[in-house]
């Protein structure tokens, strides 16, 4: 019995699939979840096999192909029927085209961008760059505005802005091996949110997902935010 206990004590445990941490920066609190894309199952989720909108973190975990949900976040703006506002591709199937032009609201505050996910990499592209490059993405979701573009903040972000919301988004490393998903734990401006990606996380490109409806599921933190039914979501599953 003691021998078994010793074996269990020293048996190597699997590394955490996603590392989430609460970080104070610039007078604000953020939760940042870092994903090693090559080693984890990072995917987008919108509808189930019958074409029904999944709509919640619990809905992802209830899918027959999912054994366990590790991390999840809303991943792009959506209409009242929860269909994506912009470009959307899941498991190689495009259900919404790219929207390249300016428009109302945060989505149309150009430049906006696209998160492109493949088996071993994830990249945030500015939309027109995405169109020019035409990368072969297994999954893709378009949202906006861009937070960081090639190391620079979005040109419309103002340090003295009074528009403050709970916000969430994603940044990717230059090599595409790491994606960092962030949600603010209080109301922040676009300038404060983008600065966290650029100056603290030091990521070259980052994309805004949404405000007001921003939500996070983080198993290692015991966190599962509740609220409105969601449209597109991004998740790490086992």
Describe the structure.
By secondary structure, this protein is mainly beta. 13% of the residues lie in helices and 36% in strands. It has 4 helices and 17 strands. The strands form 3 sheets. It has a 7-stranded antiparallel beta sheet, covered by helices on one side. It is globular and about 45 Å long. The N terminus is likely disordered.
Question: Any chance you could write out the topology, listing elements then pairs?
Answer:
Elements: H1 2-10, E1 18-25, E2 28-36, E3 42-45, H2 57-61, E4 69-74, E5 88-90, E6 93-96, E7 113-117, E8 122-126, H3 127-133, E9 139-143, E10 146-149, E11 152-153, E12 167-172, E13 178-184, H4 190-200, E14 205-211, E15 216-218, E16 223-224, E17 233-237
Antiparallel strand pairs: 1-2, 2-13, 3-17, 4-15, 4-17, 5-6, 5-9, 7-8, 7-9, 10-11, 10-14, 12-13, 12-14, 15-16
List the keywords.
4 helices, 238 residues, single chain, disordered N terminus, mainly beta, seven-stranded antiparallel β-sheet
Count of beta strands = 17
Order of helices and strands: HEEEHEEEEEHEEEEEHEEEE
Helix content: 10-25%
Radius of gyration: 18 Å
Largest sheet: 7 strands, antiparallel
- Overall geometry: globular
Provide a brief overview of the structure.
The chain has 238 residues and is mainly β. Helices cover 13% and strands 36% of the residues.
């Amino acid at each position: 019995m003691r021998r078994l206990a010793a074996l269990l004590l020293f048996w190597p445990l699997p590394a955490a699939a996603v590392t989430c941490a609460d970080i104070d920066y610039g007078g604000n609190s953020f939760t940042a979840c870092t994903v090693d894309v090559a080693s984890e199952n990072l995917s987008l989720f919108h509808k189930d096999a019958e074409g029904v909108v999944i709509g919640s973190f619990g809905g992802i975990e209830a899918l027959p192909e999912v054994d366990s949900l590790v991390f999840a976040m809303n991943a792009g703006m959506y209409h009242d029927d929860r269909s994506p506002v912009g470009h959307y591709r899941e498991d190689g199937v495009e259900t919404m085209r790219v929207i390249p032009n300016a428009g109302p609201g945060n989505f149309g505050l150009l430049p906006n961008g696209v998160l492109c996910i493949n088996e071993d990499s994830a990249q945030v592209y500015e939309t027109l760059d995405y169109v020019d490059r035409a990368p072969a993405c297994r999954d893709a979701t378009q949202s906006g505005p861009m937070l960081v573009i090639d190391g620079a903040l979005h040109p419309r972000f103002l340090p003295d802005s009074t528009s403050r919301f709970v916000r969430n988004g994603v940044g990717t490393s230059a090599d595409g091996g790491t994606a960092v998903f962030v949600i603010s734990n209080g109301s922040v401006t676009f300038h404060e949110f983008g600065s966290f990606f650029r100056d603290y996380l030091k990521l070259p490109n980052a994309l805004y997902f949404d405000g007001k409806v921003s939500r996070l599921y983080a198993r290692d933190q015991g966190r599962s935010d509740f609220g409105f039914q969601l449209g597109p979501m991004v998740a790490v599953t086992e």
